[in-house]
Amino acid sequence: MKNSIDPTRVSIVGSGFLARGMVYALRNQPDLEVGRVLTRRDIESCNDFPDRELLTNSIEEAINAAEIVLECSGDPVHATHVIEQAMQAGMPVVTMNSEFHVTTGSALVNRGFLTEAEGDQPGSLAALHHEVCSMGFRPLVYGNIKGFLDHNPPRDSMEEWARRQGISLSQVVSFTDGTKLQIEQALIANGLQTKIAQPGLLGPRCKEISAGGDQLAEAAKQLGHPVSDYVLADGVKLPAGVFITAQHDPEQQSYLEYLKLGAGPYYTLVRNYHLCHLEIMKTIRGVMTGDDPLLNNSSQPTVGVAAISKCPLQPGTVIERGIGSFEVRGSAVPITEYPNHIPIGLLQGARIRRHIAPGEILMLEDVELPETRAFGLYRNILAQAVASVSEAAPR
């Protein structure tokens, strides 16, 4: 626990949209300051970055300048390399990088302090989980809210949206084709010890969040466990937030109806915003005062995010980056039902070995992957997941 009037030094990994916003935000926080900002870009070319003197290409320099490391690069392979080094140096690590968690995060959770931050949907759902459970609710649905979904969006449209919003093309594509959502809900399933209803999730269309929440709650009751899922706006504008649909004690029914949560038996509580970098500071302050991790992928994940082809893929095709690409999209799957699936987060510089038709799930044997640290750690995660199922099977 930090006990000092000196500001806590935060080194940021990544120099994109989120990192820039974080640098601006920390300028006005008397208890927090930027140590260094780690970038892979040529520093001389970073004319659009605030406080360019904070930039470094050295992982060691970024770690040495910090009391806490914030990883928000969005790149699971790069994040694995940096986070492992930070944890080896004894640094607590806060992330806004669900892509990292569902790819390799489980291999690192027992090596030190590692948590996803509040502010993106998974961290916001974890915070809402703690809040509703403290009031006696029993969650059935951990829900994301999706305004638009196109599994195979056209390039020209995505390029236009990237220009309008000032974010990368890969980010726009991963938001639009559902990959980011599938990754986020896989992290929730693993981190909050729940499950998914089916590969790819259910995602009912709805005009009101509570109506979609009720549908998902019924599915959860039939399955016998809470679910991590989402609702999709049906011709209406829904808030860019998260929700939990839950049950409560029968004795509370009249009180909850009076308090405008409806007649039950399901009650939907909505957090109608997520403010990304502006909320990360809450998590950082919590870490420095001794809070437990808010959310991580757990050491024994049950849900992964597979890569599904969007188009015919020929032998020899190289996928430079799977997440946010026009070749594949992500889909949440139970790991033990699809043990040979290739996590979409590992598809970087990956060469296709055989013809793959649109809609096929890519398997490990279908792809030649570079031998990265992330790939090695994922193999360990997979071996442990398969072994745990074998040990649990009746003999």
UniProtKB/TrEMBL annotation:
<protein>
    <submittedName>
        <fullName>Uncharacterized protein</fullName>
    </submittedName>
</protein>
<dbReference type="Pfam" id="PF03447">
    <property type="entry name" value="NAD_binding_3"/>
</dbReference>
<dbReference type="InterPro" id="IPR005106">
    <property type="entry name" value="Asp/hSer_DH_NAD-bd"/>
</dbReference>
<dbReference type="Pfam" id="PF21135">
    <property type="entry name" value="DRL_cat"/>
</dbReference>
<dbReference type="InterPro" id="IPR048423">
    <property type="entry name" value="DRL_cat"/>
</dbReference>
<dbReference type="GO" id="GO:0050661">
    <property type="term" value="F:NADP binding"/>
</dbReference>
<dbReference type="GO" id="GO:0016491">
    <property type="term" value="F:oxidoreductase activity"/>
</dbReference>
<feature type="domain" description="Aspartate/homoserine dehydrogenase NAD-binding">
    <location>
        <begin position="14"/>
        <end position="100"/>
    </location>
</feature>
<dbReference type="InterPro" id="IPR036291">
    <property type="entry name" value="NAD(P)-bd_dom_sf"/>
</dbReference>
<feature type="domain" description="Oxidoreductase DRL-like catalytic">
    <location>
        <begin position="119"/>
        <end position="280"/>
    </location>
</feature>
